[in-house]
Write a structure and sequence with these properties.
Chains A, B, C, D: InterPro entries: SAM-dependent_MTases_sf, TRM61_C, tRNA_MeTrfase_Gcd14. 4 copies of one chain form a homotetramer. Chain A is an alpha/beta fold and 259 residues long. Helices cover 25% and strands 33% of the residues of chain A. The longest helix of chain A has 14 residues, at 203-216.
Chain lengths: 259, 259, 259, 259
């Protein structure tokens, strides 16, 4: 569809004199939308081509069709701390994910990492994601469907700390408070050499994980790292890093399953 | 195959008392391999199961089957500055890539970003990558084949600054010294709203790009950012960021094509 | 004085269950003070020893005598972007400041950098700081007096782009939008080898400065850098970098005067 | 002295086509010096004015009188991990140091932090620094003399974990592996509200320190932070952060003594 339709998701990039800000919302012809540079009515949007420019009182708005990134950053519902694209992109590439691979995830949470993993292994591959809470399973399922990736994702009820039913998996991804409880139980589900990527917010968890591995056995440590995303103010006459930034999301530990 | 074979690529994670280092090489029974913690002979490796542990003089080695990440970080040949996984992963996720999408890249370079893009859109999608130098086209083709992704990648001879033949593309990726020369010409190849992600090492290029966009038109700026990867020394009794790190690779500018 | 007196400045470090926050204010027995963990009355503070602990509804407050750092971070008035301690400390040490040195500054601004410079060269040394705006000169003078350093500081009316009257200075510090306009004029005021430290918020200014130096002459470039301060959440059971941080203040360029 | 003399320390900033590097050495007329851009003889240096320019085979050298920063970064001898100017500058400013203050340090180490502390409190103030090792005491004393600050520094034999003899100190600085052992014993030496700044390389030490404080008592936690210095390649036509950087030195914890 080349024109904005009633009920479509829209991404608005609004440019003022010294600022730029993105908004994502559903277009309703009877609604009105407020931005830092002025308001606009839904009726101004319905029917215009995607990629149009709309004048605002104190700036300009570009009306764009949002992609998966925009939806995840702005509107997909979340009921837990989610893994952001900067981390998800690296986690998937650090695991060497390829189409057709079969991977394990726990827990599903709001399904954000699930979506990025599925985007890599789909079609032909599979993400098996375990989640104990039924409300989170429903939310994750709904978000995965919004991304159109439900064909490659199986959301399973169950506590990964009791292991997974699958075998010969190519990789595993743990985003849970106590990953050390899961590492032993999931070991039989993994191919030797399979990467296991663990995401944890605190250094205490990294220490406990590395310490626990000595007694758990069955894994080699490949890397501990963190990714820091620094946004810049995109003004060609006064280019500089943004004053405020997100200083931390979590630590990424990459393990490899042994024989 | 569950055992290390003659000629296989192997990833060795070597752990000493205070260090850990990875090595990737082809296993040859008659060769010998030197690590910081001691040497081992190829004949010790051939025939043992993947994921085995081998004692070294001053440490231990884990013998693992390398994945795409390991091959790209250690052995895929490169004849140019490549885009590393931390950036490639974010670039792909910032563009909202999904299986089946059709995207443009220029230039192919050593094919590293090509591989990550293909890993997302494959199968069903396509990466069309333009490269003026024939030696780079051959190198990129060889690396894409090594990753098993040649079915989704078309490496084309041609100067992207004269535009691309394809139409209705979902995204474009520019890793070239003068991306502002390509933005006008490729505009007709892109769907309205399509993300265009530009990777440039210097702030001068970012300034020139943002400045040029005012006269080129046809695009909205969504974001300028950089990703900083900080590795940590993975010692549970003395956890700390590594003393030496890579401080910079490049700046990522995300644009969106207008109507 | 070992007890809190009416009208004294106080620093309150308030600890709640998961947060910690500092407040600086003048103690007034008739006032009341609100913190995130509950309120307290001024009458609870007057007369208690410095370093006392006061229970709040949802936490605890420590009542401390603020030092120069606390006053500068919280209450010294500012009418311009100021240079923060992380930058000021490095700027002074990068210039090798020692007691007794005589240095130049422009502009005085709110006097924050002036104070740190004076703290190094005092007593016996001198800071000559030029400022065109009379309101800023008054503010800087007032802040320097609050720090007790007025004996070493001379705040001068004048445009540094026309040069300085002093001679044989040990260092110079430029915090102004167009430092390239001042470099030529101040050159005769500096000892050969003297460091000149320039602080600028944007990369455009750094580029323009480095470019201008080629035609201005008279200086060698020693270093361009930036300092990033990352605060951590100080919880021993869940230690992690703070989620929100200041991502940027400015770039520090160190030059050396030639013969 | 305005001319380079035999035996003087010299700072050479050497500029090549794409690089810049600093060297510090003693000038000897019979010696010769090798830089990345070519060699020069000591006889070329003796007698020329400070701030002179010397042509090299593949670049140019600026001959400068080194300041305290240059000497500390390049030539002052060290027999331990030292505290660099970026951290030392912030540590001193975070403690609100002013001329005339009396402060405690442990251990002296190579005397680098001692020097920065003395540069603040001198003259009129005092740094009392405790060190158990006699070889380190001698080294620290020698470095403090090289900086000309010996009048304000007392280097004391003794184990700070048994406390300090001084009373009514304005601040304390701990750069030692087990700072939690010293906090109780030094408490009687500090004025209420005095800042205590602790520098530790690992997160394990930060956790142990914060944990220990609960039972030690007598202190409030003001801040935990780290300073990251990012150097830039100072080329106006291709400005960018340096590819390689120091990723970590240590964590800075600021405490305040209670009543």
């Amino acid at each position: 569809m080349s024109a904005v339709g009633e009920g479509d998701w829209a991404l608005l990039i609004v440019e003022g004199r010294e600022r730029r800000k993105s908004y994502v919302f559903r277009v309703r012809s009877k609604a009105s939308y407020t931005t830092f540079a002025g308001s606009l009515r839904g009726s101004q949007l319905v029917g215009i081509p995607w990629g149009s420019r709309v004048e605002l009182g104190k700036g300009v708005a570009y009306v764009l069709k949002p992609n998966l990134y925009d939806l995840m950053m702005h509107v997909l519902p979340r009921r837990s701390q989610v893994i952001y694209p900067k981390d998800a992109g690296y986690i998937a590439s650090a695991a060497g994910l390829l189409p057709g691979m079969r991977v394990l995830e726990a827990g599903a949470g709001s399904g954000f990492l699930t979506i990025w993993l599925a985007a890599h292994v789909c079609p032909g591959g599979a993400v098996y994601t375990y989640e104990v809470r039924s409300d989170m399973r429903e939310l994750a399922a709904s978000n995965v469907r919004a991304a159109g990736l439900e064909g490659c994702v199986t959301i399973k009820e169950g506590d990964i700390r009791k292991g997974a039913e699958e075998r010969e998996l190519d990789a595993a991804f743990l985003d849970m408070p106590d990953p050390w409880e899961a590492l032993g139980p999931i070991r039989p589900s993994l191919k030797p050499s399979a990467p296991v990527v663990v995401f944890t917010p605190t250094v205490n968890q990294v220490i406990k994980l590395l310490d626990a591995l000595k007694s758990i056995g069955g894994y080699a440590v490949q890397e501990v790292s963190e990714l820091i995303k620094r946004e810049w103010e995109a003004r060609p006459e006064a280019l500089r890093p943004a004053v405020r930034m997100i200083g931390h999301t979590g630590f990424i530990t990459v393990l490899r399953a042994l024989a």
